[in-house]
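Kindly go through one protein, given below as sequence and C-alpha cells. The question is how this chain folds according to its C-alpha cells.

***
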Amino acid sequence: MSTSSTIITRKTRSTCVTSNSMDVSNIFEDFHTNLHSPTQFIHIYNQYYQSQTQRTTLFNILCNILIIENVDRKIYLFILDCLITNYENLSDIQFKQNLLPFIKQIFLTKDDDDNNNNNNEILLSIIRLFIVLVEYRSNILTLTLVEWLLCLLNFLAMHLTSTTYLIYGDLITDLLSKIIKQFTPLSKEIVEILSRSSTSLIISTNFLNQLKLWIQNIDDIRLVLF
C-alpha cells in the first residue's frame, strides 16, 4: 500500500513538472495567436501572471509584442498599463530593445482624425510609464538617456501646443519635473548632442520659454536642462 502510494505520488509530481514546462514553452504562441483579440489576450495574461516562476518570461514576451506591427491598440494599451503597474520587472535591455523603438514609432506616427483618440490614449500611457520609470527605475534609463530624452523633447517641441497641452499638460509637467530632479545637470556631451539634433526646436527660445511656463517652480529651464 505504501509502495503504491509512493508510485502514485511520483507520477503526479512528474505530470505537474511536465505541464509547467509545456506551459512556459507555449506562452509565446498563446499570446501571438490572440494579438487581435484583447479579451482573450487579457485572459491569457491573467492566467500566466498567477505564476511567479513565469513572470520573467511573461514580461519579456509583452515587451517583444510592442514592436510587432498590426497589433490591436487595446492590447498595446493593456501592455503599457501592465508595465506601469509592474515596473520593477523591466530591465534596461528591455527598455532599449523593445520599449524605446515602440515609443519612437508612436511619437513619430501622425494618425488620421478617426484614430486621434486611440493615439492620445497610447501617448498618455507612454508618458505615465516614463513618469514611473524616471521616479522609481531611473537606473534602467541611464543607458539610453540621450536617445529617449532627445526623442521626448523633439516630440514635445513639435506637437505640444496650447490645445494638446489640455490633454497632456499635467502629466508633461510632472514628467519634466522628475527628469530635472533625477538627471540634471546634463553632461556637456549630452547637451552637445541635443544641440546638434536634426531639429533645433528643442533649444529654441520659444520652446524653452514655454517649458518655463509649464514648470513654474524652476527659475530658468534653459539653465537647468542645458
Notes: Residues 93-226 form one domain. The first helix runs from residue 2 to 32. The chain has two domains: 1-89, 93-226. Confidence is low (pLDDT under 50) at residues 1-22.
